[in-house]
Specification:
Blueprint: H1 7-18, H2 22-29, H3 33-41, H4 48-58, H5 62-67, E1 79-84, H6 105-118, E2 128-138, H7 139-148, H8 151-163, H9 169-184, E3 186-195, H10 209-214, H11 236-240, E4 242-252, E5 264-270, E6 274-276, E7 279-290, E8 300-301, E9 303-304, H12 307-312, E10 323-331, H13 361-375, E11 390-398, E12 401-408, H14 411-414, H15 416-426, E13 440-450, E14 458-470, E15 481-485, E16 491-496, E17 507-512, H16 524-533, H17 546-551, H18 557-575, H19 585-592, E18 607-608, E19 611-619, E20 625-632, E21 638-639, E22 642-648, E23 657-658, E24 660-667, E25 670-672, E26 675-677, E27 684-691, E28 705-711
Parallel strand pairs: 2-11, 15-17, 18-21
Antiparallel strand pairs: 1-7, 2-3, 3-10, 4-5, 4-10, 5-7, 5-9, 6-7, 7-8, 11-12, 13-14, 14-17, 15-16, 19-20, 20-27, 22-23, 22-28, 24-27, 25-26
Helix pairs in contact: 1-3, 2-3, 6-13, 8-9
């Protein structure tokens, strides 16, 4: 139960909001200025009878003065403040940070859930609870919400942006969002609530979590080495997912601000430069109470809202537990179109006016559940005395009525094999080698940490934990992959294991590094710091980054490559089928049989050129092409070395060439510096490859791949 703010600070703020001085209030109350000053300084409090007079002077009820859980409505009302245009006539045509991510609810889920994990209150040992709510508004529900956000005040700004829509990207997105709302009579809200989190603490303008999220760009105030975020870019996904560029926020604070904790509300709008009624505006705008301490009382700051207001804004929280609610207004999911099947049952392309809809709440619900189960399964698992770090659910509503019931994401359903592996590790029931179904094999893998500042040498060796178990269930796809994670247990890297022996049984593997391997593991914190610096803004891989180069050295990323090599080698060893002894079945049977051999055919002389005979290709998690190729080799005494070349198929001009990130031999050949070499007498060979996604000039899903074999040169 909220206790309310101290009387002195509360009264001082109400006087500022009302534009009154202490002397003016004292005159209205028939008291001395010294008496009012004593209340504000906390030296005394007014008598109950005086409380009634104070309420009348402030234009509120006496209950508000007694409880002080909200501001009065005296003075300037809640409104929109738009940042004025720059004096030098500069123009920002959108927030560049938002372009780091696609309008994709799966990317949003990854970034927001990571932020909630990073802000989890750890003192009580309980998990952070995150709920995603999709809510479609139509009819009178839509009208009531637009009235609550003062849509009529915003509409001229959206109209100005729409007029410029043909000339810049952000304008086109906003224009499409506004047209969808009016033409289809709907608006999609996507709310992200977390509980048992810190909330947006701190001052409106000074350093703190509130200012970092609401006022600033590229600022990350994450605490702890195990935190996932480090660039301050993740919050931009909230605005990127809104076709209207609008996000409303309601935060319950873990640390009081101005003596309050509940219903701290603010809104932020991200639009490009625009001109409205002869005035230019730089871009962002804020929804809040005008700040009496700012010049002209124009700048909007957060305010302590009442329960009715947060309900009208669709920001009501289910309890007073600390955390934050983000409401994305006009949510859309453009990336979902990539997964749409644009063909009918006969395989013919569907008409362009087919059921494409980036605002379908049922589809968005399914994609959220999928992403959360894929990226955060490990954070939802407990065992062996460990509690889960995270609980997460997704639901969908239409005008307050349930469309898709609340779905609690279950890691044992989304990732059955890996869930079994991690629980076995927590409960201490792993084995050294897989001999029976359902077992989990464990192996320590070394990560040699470099010295900082470019110094040569090794700081120490951190022992990561590798877990391997058989793949089980239809959801265990794709198979034969390693999920790598660190302290906050979000999956960072998903990679296939190359060069597996033919006939290997399907498996799944988990790599625990840093504090995920155990907080008491030697050099766990140092490994966290090192790997966190090796992650890009998407936090989906470990590799060369500018921070890694500056803090360690340009070659520091090779330590991660060595870890990957060790992991792949350990996996191959753990999943290999044991060889039979010479006295067992196959060898003994071979000696008991007599097989008549055919005379060897005469081998032609001269070099022969291998040809590509079969090709299988898929798209990996990082947008790379993953290929498996078979090579047919004519009979001859000399086989020409060949170089596999990956290209993009284009209608005209030269085909863009892609770089290989990995090229490995499977059978009948060897890979040396990107060249395939074949032992004499080989008739068939097989190799695998993965392209470097960073070398792709366009998104992989929009391209076609061509692979050729070209005669290679000596290295």
């Amino acid at each position: 139960m909220e206790t309310g703010e101290e009387f002195g600070p509360w009264l001082a703020r109400q006087l500022k909001l009302a534009g009154k001085t202490q002397a003016e209030l004292a005159k209205e109350l028939g008291l001395t200025r010294a008496a009012v000053s004593a209340w504000i300084a906390g030296r005394s409090t007014p008598r109950p009878t005086v409380m009634t007079d104070i309420a009348k002077a402030l234009g509120t009820d006496v209950g508000t003065v007694h409880t002080r859980t909200t501001d009065t409505q005296a003075g300037l009302p809640v409104s929109w403040y738009h940042r004025p245009g720059y004096p030098d006539d500069g123009r920002d045509l959108g927030n560049a940070a938002a372009f780091a991510f696609d309008a994709d609810v799966q990317v949003l889920a990854r970034e927001t859930c990571q932020n909630s994990l990073d802000e989890r209150l750890t003192e009580n040992g309980r998990p952070v609870r995150v709920r995603y709510t999709l809510h479609e508004l139509t009819g009178e529900h839509l009208d009531a919400f637009r009235e609550a956000i003062l849509w009529n005040d915003l509409f001229p700004h959206y109209s100005a942006v729409s007029e410029l829509a043909g000339n810049q990207k952000v304008g086109r997105v906003v224009d499409a969002g506004v047209r969808d709302m009016y033409e289809k009579g709907r608006l999609i809200l996507l709310r992200v609530d977390d509980y048992n989190a810190s909330g947006l603490t701190g001052d409106d303008y000074e350093d703190g979590k509130f200012a970092a999220v609401v006022r600033r760009q590229l600022e990350s105030l994450k605490t702890g080495t195990a935190a996932g975020g480090s660039y301050g870019l993740g919050k931009a996904t909230l605005w990127a997912t809104s076709a209207l560029g609008l996000v409303l926020i309601n935060s319950t604070l873990s640390v009081p601000h101005e003596g309050r904790t509940e219903r701290r509300v603010i809104g932020r709008l991200e639009l490009p430069w625009r001109k409205v009624d002869g005035h230019t505006y730089a871009g962002p705008a804020w929804f809040g109470r005008p700040d009496p301490d700012k010049r002209g009382a124009e700048v909007a700051r957060s305010w302590w809202a009442d329960e009715e207001t947060v309900d009208r804004l669709h920001l009501s929280r289910e309890s007073d537990e600390p955390g934050t609610s983000f409401l994305i207004v006009g949510a859309h999911d453009v990336a979902s179109l990539e997964e749409e099947d644009f063909h009918d049952q006969d395989g013919k392309p569907r008409a362009e006016e087919g059921p494409e809809d980036t605002r379908d709440i049922s589809r968005m619900h399914g994609r959220l559940v999928e992403a959360l189960g894929r990226d955060f399964w490990a954070a939802m698992i407990g065992g062996g005395g460990r509690l889960p770090l995270l609980e997460v659910s997704v639901r969908a509503l239409r005008n307050g009525e349930v469309v898709v019931p609340e779905t609690k994401v279950d890691p044992s359903v989304e990732q059955p094999s890996r869930t079994r592996a991690l629980r076995a590790h927590y409960e201490g029931i792993t084995v050294d080698r897989l001999t029976e179904a359902g077992q989990v094999a464990s192996r320590n893998v070394p990560l040699k940490l470099p010295l900082t500042g470019g110094a040569r040498g090794t700081l120490g060796t951190h022992q990561a934990v590798l877990l391997v178990t058989e793949a089980a269930g239809d959801k265990d796809t794709p198979k034969n992959r390693v999920h790598s994670l660190r302290g906050n247990r979000m999956t960072v890297r998903k990679a296939p294991v190359p060069n597996l022996p033919i006939g290997t049984n399907p498996f799944q593997a988990v790599l625990l590094v840093g504090e995920a391997a155990g907080e008491s593991t030697p050099f766990a914190k140092e490994a966290e710091e090192f790997l966190r610096a090796a992650e890009p803004p998407e936090h989906d891989r470990w590799g060369q980054t500018e921070e890694l180069t500056l803090r360690w050295s340009p070659s520091a990323y090779r330590r991660i490559q060595n870890l990957t090599t060790e992991v792949n080698s350990a996996v191959r060893e753990l999943v290999a089928r044991p060889r039979r002894s010479k006295g067992e079945g196959g060898e003994a049977l071979r000696k008991a049989l007599t097989v008549k051999s055919r005379p060897k055919a005469k081998v032609p002389t001269g070099p022969v050129v291998p040809v590509l005979d079969a090709l299988d290709a898929t798209i990996g998690d990082q947008g790379e092409w993953l290929i498996t190729a078979e090579v047919k080799i004519p009979r001859g005494d000399e086989i020409v070395p060949m170089v596999p070349v990956a290209q993009l198929d284009v209608r005209s001009g030269g085909r863009p060439r892609l770089d290989w990130a990995e090229l490995v031999a499977v059978e009948g050949c060897e890979v040396e510096n990107g060249t395939l070499r074949f032992p004499p007498g080989t008739r068939r060979a097989k190799f695998r490859g993965a392209t470097d996604a960073s070398s792709h000039p366009v998104r992989t899903t929009l391209t076609r791949l061509v692979v050729e074999l070209r005669a290679g040169k000596e290295a």
